[in-house]
Write a structure and sequence with these properties.
Elements (H helix, E strand, L loop, with lengths): L1 E6 L3 H16 L3 E2 L8 E6 L4 H13 L11 E6 H6 L3 H4 L5 E3 L7 H10 L4 E3 L5 H5 L12 E5 L1 E2 L10 H5 L3 E2 L2 H13 L4 E5 L21 H9 L7 E5 L8 H9 L6 E3 L7 H6 L6 H14 L4 E8 L6 H14 L3 E6 L17 H24 L5 E9 L7 E4 L5 E4 L10 E9 L3 E4 L9
Parallel strand pairs: 1-2, 1-3, 3-4, 4-5, 5-6, 7-10, 10-11, 12-13, 13-14, 17-19
Antiparallel strand pairs: 8-9, 15-16, 15-18, 16-17, 18-19
The protein binds S-adenosyl-L-homocysteine (SAH), iron/sulfur cluster and FE3-S4 cluster.
C-alpha cells in the first residue's frame, strides 16, 4: 500500500510531513511521490494567507477524479487549514475521508487503519500535548540527506494581530532539552551534518509559553544551541523563526562562541514603522530591532540577516512603508520574504478594513524586491576573491557537472568537484564570480567574465 503526502506552508509543516511519513512507513506503508498510484493521499495544509488555503483547496478538489473506479483510496486533509475549517471541509470537499487537526497528527496511522475497516468521514480536531513527543519520528528509511529538521517548540502564544498561527497551531509548548538533544544525536548517527531547529517562536524554547523575554543573562534556547553544537557529526546548526526580543545577551554570546551556529540569522521584522509594529502587536520598536541587529553584528563578525516583511497592513501609509524600507537598508538584509497583507478571519487585524489597495501592495512589494536584488548582488560581489567554507551538497540540479553547497551565511556556491570529494564535506573554495542568487568558485572551467 502506498501513501502520498503533499505539504503546503512552512518548514514546520514539512517536518510534520516527514514525521508522518516515518510513522506510516513503520506501519508498512510505502511512501510515493506519485499521487496517481497512491492508496492514501494526505494534504498537509497551511492557512497563513488566503492564497495558501486557495491553492490547497483547488488541488484537493481536483483529487476527486482519483476515486473514480478506485473507491478504496483514502484522502485526508491535515494541518493548519484542517484545524481552521474543521468539519466544514466535508461540505466543500465531500470526497475526502478525514480531517485531522494540528493537535492530533500523531493519531494519523491509527485513524487510517480504522478507516480501512470502517469507511465513515472522521474529524479529529482536539488539542493534545501528546503531539509534541509523538512527532519526534524521522523517515530514516532510504534517507540519504545531510540535512535534518527538528521541531523544538509547537504552537505560538504571541498573537501578532494579523496572524492565524496561534489559532490553528494552539498554545506554545517546548519539548524537553533531553529529547531534542537525543533526536539531534540520532540524526547525526544517520549522516546528518546540518540541522535546522524549528518553532514558530523558536527562541522562546524552554520558557513555558511566557511571552515576556527572559533577563539578559538567560536563554534556555541559547543553552540548547550550545549543547547541540557539541554533538559529534553535527557541523552546522540553523534555526527558524526567532522573535527579535528573545535575543538576550546570553543568546548572542552563545552564537558568538559557537561557529557551528550559522552566521545567517532569520529575524522577522514585519514593519519598520513603530506605529504599524504596535498595531501588529509586535512587542518591539524599530530602534530596539536595530539595537539587537547591531549587537549581533558586533559580537559575530560577518553575520548576515534575512527577514519577513508584510506590506499593506491596514492603515500602512507611504511614510510607514518608507520607514520599513529604511530599516531594511540599514540592516542590509541578504534575503527577505515579502508578503502582501492578507486578512485572516478571526484575527484581531481582520476587524480593521483591509484598506491598502492591491495594486499599492504590489507596488510596495516590487520596490522592496528591487532593493533586495540590488543589495544581494553588491554583497555577493564583495565576496569575489575571498575563500569561503562550503558544506558540499552534491551535483547541482541545473548542471550536474558542477556541485553546489552553502556557506554558513546561507549563500549558494557552485564549484567544480574534485577526486575524492564527498557529500557532507566541509570544503574551501575561492570565489571568482557572483550573481544576486549565487557565487561561483574559481575552479569552474570556462567561467564567464563577471
Ligand atoms: N513565527 C514566524 C512567522 C510565521 S508565519 C515569526 O513570527 O516570525 C510566516 C510569515 O508570514 C510571517 O513572518 C509574516 O510575515 C507572514 N504573515 C503571517 N500572517 C500574515 C498575513 N495575515 N498576511 C500576510 N502575511 C502574513
Ligand atoms: Fe504568528 Fe507572531 Fe506567532 Fe510568528 S510570532 S507565528 S507572526 S503570532
Ligand atoms: Fe502555515 Fe501553519 Fe506553518 S498556518 S505557516 S503551515 S504553522
Amino acid at each position: 500500500m502506498k501513501a502520498y503526502i503533499k505539504t503546503y506552508g512552512c518548514q514546520m509543516n514539512e517536518r510534520d510531513s516527514e514525521a508522518l511519513a516515518g510513522m506510516l512507513s513503520a506501519r508498512g506503508w510505502e511512501i510515493t511521490q506519485n499521487e496517481n498510484d497512491a492508496d492514501l493521499l494526505i494534504f498537509n495544509t497551511c492557512s497563513v494567507r488566503e492564497q495558501a488555503e486557495r491553492k490547497a483547496l483547488g488541488k484537493i478538489m481536483h483529487m476527486k477524479k482519483l476515486k473514480r473506479g478506485r473507491e478504496h483510496i483514502i484522502i485526508g486533509v491535515i494541518g493548519c487549514m484542517a484545524q481552521n475549517h474543521g468539519e466544514k471541509l466535508f461540505q466543500e470537499l465531500p470526497h475526502i475521508d478525514f480531517v485531522l487537526g494540528t493537535g492530533q497528527l500523531h493519531e494519523l496511522p491509527d485513524l487510517v487503519e480504522s478507516l480501512r475497516e470502517d469507511r465513515k468521514q472522521q474529524a479529529l480536531l482536539s488539542n493534545s500535548e501528546a503531539v509534541l513527543t509523538g512527532m519526534g519520528v524521522h523517515l530514516f528509511d532510504g534517507m540519504n540527506s545531510i540535512f535534518g529538521q527538528v521541531a523544538i517548540t509547537r504552537g505560538c502564544n504571541r498573537f501578532c494581530s494579523y496572524c492565524i498561527v496561534p489559532y490553528v497551531r494552539g498554545r506554545e509548548m517546548s519539548r524537553s532539552e533531553k529529547d531534542v538533544l537525543n533526536e539531534i544525536g540520532e540524526l547525526a548517527k544517520h549522516g546528518i551534518r546540518e540541522v535546522m531547529l524549528l518553532g514558530q517562536n523558536v527562541a522562546a524554547f524552554g520558557l513555558n509559553g511566557v511571552i515576556t523575554p527572559p533577563p539578559d543573562n538567560v536563554s534556555p534556547f541559547g543553552e540548547l544551541l550550545a549543547k547541540a553544537a557539541q554533538i559529534p557529526g553535527i557541523e552546522r546548526i540553523r534555526f527558524t523563526s526567532p522573535y527579535p526580543t528573545y535575543f538576550t545577551d546570553r543568546l548572542i554570546q552563545v552564537i558568538a562562541d559557537n561557529p557551528k551556529i550559522c552566521r545567517s540569522i532569520h529575524l522577522p521584522l514585519q514593519s519598520g514603522s513603530n506605529r504599524i509594529l504596535k498595531a501588529m502587536n509586535r512587542h518591539y520598536t524599530a530602534e530596539k530591532y536595530l539595537e539587537i541587529v547591531n549587537k549581533l553584528k558586533k559580537a559575530v563578525p560577518g553575520i548576515v540577516f534575512s527577514t519577513d516583511i508584510i506590506v499593506g497592513f491596514p492603515g500602512e501609509t507611504e511614510e510607514d512603508f518608507c520607514a520599513t524600507r529604511d530599516v531594511m537598508n540599514e540592516v542590509g538584509f541578504d534575503n527577505a520574504f515579502i508578503f502582501k497583507y492578507s486578512p485572516r478571519p478571526g484575527t484581531v487585524s481582520a476587524k480593521t478594513a483591509d484598506n491598502v489597495p492591491q495594486e499599492e501592495k504590489e507596488r510596495r512589494n516590487q520596490i522592496l524586491l528591487a532593493d533586495l536584488a540590488e543589495r544581494s548582488l553588491a554583497h555577493n560581489r564583495a565576496l569575489i576573491g575571498t575563500v569561503q567554507q562550503v558544506l558540499a551538497e552534491g551535483p547541482s540540479s541545473r548542471n550536474p557537472a558542477r556541485w553546489c553547497g552553502k556557506t554558513s551565511t546561507a549563500k549558494s556556491v557552485m564549484f567544480a568537484p574534485w577526486e575524492g570529494i564527498k557529500i557532507g564535506d566541509l570544503v574551501e573554495v575561492k570565489i571568482a564570480r557572483a550573481s544576486s542568487m549565487s557565487l561561483f568558485a574559481d575552479n569552474i572551467p570556462d567561467l564567464p567574465e563577471c
